Amino acid sequence: MADVVDPATRSRMMSGIRGKNTKPEMMIRRGLHARGFRYRLHCKLPGKPDICLPKHGAVVFVHGCFWHAHDCGLFKIPASRPDFWRQKLLGNADRDMANISALESTGWRIATVWECSLRGRGEQGLNEAVDRLSNWLRGNTAMIDIRG
Predict the structure, then answer these.
(1) Which pLDDT tens digit goes with each residue over 21-32?
(2) pTM summary value
(3) Within-domain flag for 112
(4) pLDDT at residue number 42
(5) How far is Cα 120 from Cα 116, in angstroms, rounded to an integer?
(6) CA 71 to CA 143: how far, in whole Å?
(7) 43 burial class (0-12, 13-18, 19+ CB within 10 angstroms)?
(8) Which residues are bridge partners to 113 per DSSP?
(9) Which of 99, 103, 123, 130 could link 47 by a cystine bridge, Cβ 3.0 to 4.6 Å?
(10) What is the rounded radius of gyration, in angstroms, for the C-alpha atoms of the chain?
(11) In this structure, is residue 1 part of a structural domain?
(12) What's residue 15's pLDDT?
């Protein structure tokens, strides 16, 4: 028997999922601020980057591994309605690539911090991720992908 959820119930379930100010995003923001970086939040650029650092010509995306179909241990297509989820999540990943291309074409430097880089190793994982991000911001490399 297939899982059937009426649209009103699905809407209530999905309303609890945040798109801004997520726990991983807040962790990265606190770490950057503690290292002296000042930034803007959720700029009106393609993909609405989580953190914008105009002084450094850089944007930072903090991605959840599930919602952005990351190829790590935290991502797994749900067993219920797998076709729906595959289409939805791979669509998110395709949209991410299009947004990155649009940002690159306008000269922005792009960092992606994946949830898996912050989970499982506690404070050491967070410090390592923020250190790598800080070093990248001070450099001139176009892109960085911080993963677990």
Answers:
(1) 788 999 999 999
(2) 0.83
(3) yes
(4) 86
(5) 8
(6) 18
(7) middle
(8) 62, 146
(9) 99
(10) 17
(11) no
(12) 47
pLDDT of 103 reads 97
Which strands sit side by side in the sheet containing 109-114, from one edge to the other?
A: 40-41, 51-53, 58-63, 109-114, 143-146
Mean pLDDT of 109-114: 96
The β-bridge relationship of strands 143-146 and 40-41 is unpaired
**Beta strands 40-41; 51-53: pairing state:** antiparallel
Q: Is residue 97 part of a domain?
A: yes
34: containing domain:
17-146
Instruction: Give the integer Cα–Cα distance in Å for 144 and 100.
Output: 12
Count of domains forming the chain: 1
Q: What is the CATH number of the domain that holds 45?
A: 3.40.960.10
Fill in the amino acid letter for 1.
Answer: M
State the residue for tokens 């690159």: 104
pLDDT at residue 21, as a whole number:
79
On whether the CB atoms of residues 110 and 47 are closer than 8 A, the answer is: no
Assigned domain for 117 exists:
yes
**Exposed, middle or buried by CB within 10 Å (0-12, 13-18, 19+), for 109?**
buried
